Amino acid sequence: MNYHTDIDPNRPGYPAQELASIVIPLLKGVIYQEESPMLWSALLNLQAAVRDYVAVLGLELTFDEAEGYAFLRSRSEIETEGTNTAPRLIARRQLSYPVSLLLALLRKKLAEFDAGGGDTRLILSRDEVVELIRIFLPPASNEVKLIDQVDAALNKIADLGFIRRLRGERGMIEVRRIIKAFIDAQWLADFDKRLDEYLQRPVKGMEKDDE
Question: Please, where are the H alpha helices in the chain?
Answer without folding.
Answer: 16-28, 37-45, 47-56, 97-115, 126-134, 143-160, 179-182, 185-189, 191-199
